[in-house]
């Protein structure tokens, strides 16, 4: 089936949707935006339910396959979204995808979200089978040469006008981090009075709004500094940062730690896998420190807590999202805020 350029995905979705979509890449913001576009158009075409799965050790692929092949109790068409922490499902996953590719359900849209898929994986039997019935959206990183242009287009898409020096300052400030760039642009929208944003305006805005950020939260939690991490989380909340963005950053770090934990156990290429998760030389000591503190069971619980927090944000759980984010932050920092029994009860709600 066709490879779909991410920029053309919205136009593609105006037609009849395919039974399966594969969205892959190592740029989380662009991957998430592509998923948002697809889900939005799917809902407009009657796919009103959504089931979300993560490929951790607790995932039952046969249960997922059964769900994909069955209608809901209310006869609603549904999206089944599978988010993988690597591009190589286990044997059960490969077999389930291979089986599903033979007879996809017309009432289910299967959305598979992967990191960058290597050439060797693309040549495997299971991938070729699912790719044959899927729309394949590959997300490519925005290179250094194209980044200024990307910033300019993103500003324009938000109705903002900026001078060349302002664009340069913003690009330099975020150092290629697309999510941080989008956050800064949202702040600039609050300051804009239909005028042109010049370098001085942008520099002042950046300085005034740089008190807390989600990456500081992640680093403090990963380093084991629970008190500073919770203080940063509270600061983000007070500044009006959306819980969705905070959860994205924490879950991204936890999935990376989970993948690297198993790489450590199996003697794989640690640095290579770290790079695929956006962890480079500067943060490697921090990540290794966290892996020396966290155990496999704790990482699995963290993934489950993230899934619960995702449900709370979407209104599918009555849990308080900020309490959940606080618990996730503390556990990532090595502090268990709840007893084992309370944690189990929380996850079952």
Could you give a quick summary of the protein structure above?
By secondary structure, the protein is of the alpha/beta class.
Which geometry do the CA atoms define? globular
Helix tally?
18
User: Which CATH C-level class of the largest domain is it?
Assistant: Mainly Alpha
Query: Helix proportion of residues, in percent?
Result: 55-70%
Write out the strand line-up for the largest beta sheet, numbering strands in chain order.
2-3-4-1-5
Largest sheet, strands/sense/barrel: 5 strands, parallel
* Strand segment tally: 7
Radius of gyration, in angstroms, nearest whole number: 21 Å
CATH fold title of the largest domain: Zinc Finger, Delta Prime, domain 3
Terminal residue distance: 40 Å
Pattern of helices and strands: HEHEHEHEHHEHEHHEHHHHHHHHH
SS-based class: alpha/beta
**Whole-number count of domains:** 3
CATH arch. level architecture of the largest domain: Up-down Bundle
Low-confidence residue ranges: none
User: DSSP strand (E) fraction?
Assistant: 5-15%
Mean pLDDT: 85
Features:
349 residues, alpha/beta, Rossmann fold, Helicase, Ruva Protein, domain 3, Zinc Finger, Delta Prime, domain 3, 3 domains, five-stranded parallel sheet, two-stranded parallel ribbon, 7 strands
Give a written overview of the molecule.
The protein is α/β, with parallel strands linked by helices and 349 residues long. It has three domains: 6-138, Rossmann fold (3-Layer(aba) Sandwich); 144-210, Helicase, Ruva Protein, domain 3, CATH 1.10.8; 215-348, Zinc Finger, Delta Prime, domain 3, CATH 1.20.272.10. The chain is 59% helix and 10% strand. The chain is built from 18 helices and seven strands. It has helices spanning 9-13, 28-44, 61-68, 91-102, 119-122, 125-131, 144-157, 164-174, 178-191, 199-208, 214-223, 226-238, 243-266, 270-276, 284-293, 296-313, 321-332, 340-348, and strands spanning 20-24, 47-54, 77-83, 108-114, 134-138, 161-162, 196-197. The strands form two sheets. It has a five-stranded parallel β-sheet with strand order 2-3-4-1-5, sandwiched between helices. Strands 6-7 form a two-stranded parallel sheet. Strand 3 (77-83), helix 4 and strand 4 form a beta-alpha-beta unit. Helix 12 runs antiparallel to helix 17 (321-332). The longest helix is centred in the C-terminal third of the chain and has 24 residues, at 243-266. It starts with 8 loop residues before the first helix and ends with a helix.
């Amino acid at each position: 089936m066709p490879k779909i350029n991410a920029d053309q995905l919205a136009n593609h979705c105006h037609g009849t949707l395919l039974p399966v979509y594969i969205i892959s890449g190592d740029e989380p913001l662009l991957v998430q935006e592509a998923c948002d576009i697809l889900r939005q158009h799917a809902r407009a075409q009657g796919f009103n339910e959504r089931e979300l799965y993560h490929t951790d050790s607790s995932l039952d692929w046969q249960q997922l396959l059964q769900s994909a092949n069955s209608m809901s109790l209310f006869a609603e068409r549904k999206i089944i979204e599978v988010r993988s922490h690597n591009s190589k499902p286990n044997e059960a996953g490969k077999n389930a995808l291979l089986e599903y590719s033979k007879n996809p359900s017309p009432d289910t849209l299967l959305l598979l979200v992967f990191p960058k898929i290597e050439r060797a994986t693309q040549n495997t039997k299971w991938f070729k089978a699912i790719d044959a019935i899927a729309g394949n959206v590959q997300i490519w990183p925005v290179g250094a040469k194209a980044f200024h242009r990307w910033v300019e287009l993103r500003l324009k898409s938000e109705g903002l006008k900026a001078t060349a020096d302002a664009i340069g300052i913003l690009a330099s400030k975020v150092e290629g981090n697309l999510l941080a760039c989008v956050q800064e642009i949202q702040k600039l929208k609050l300051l804009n009075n239909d005028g042109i944003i010049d370098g001085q305006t942008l520099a002042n805005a950046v300085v005034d709004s740089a008190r807390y950020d989600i990456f500081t939260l992640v680093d403090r939690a990963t380093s084991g500094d629970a008190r500073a991490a919770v203080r940063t989380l509270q600061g983000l909340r007070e500044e009006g940062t959306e819980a969705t963005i905070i959860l994205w950053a924490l879950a991204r770090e936890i999935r990376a730690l989970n993948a690297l934990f198993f790489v450590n156990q199996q003697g794989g290429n640690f640095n290579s896998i770290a790079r695929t998760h956006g962890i480079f030389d500067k943060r490697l000591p921090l990540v290794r420190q966290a892996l020396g503190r966290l155990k496999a069971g704790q990482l699995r619980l963290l993934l489950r807590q993230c899934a619960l927090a995702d449900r709370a944000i979407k209104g599918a759980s009555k849990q308080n999202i900020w309490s959940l984010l606080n618990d996730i932050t503390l556990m990532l920092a090595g502090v268990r805020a709840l007893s084992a029994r309370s944690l189990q009860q929380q996850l079952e709600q």
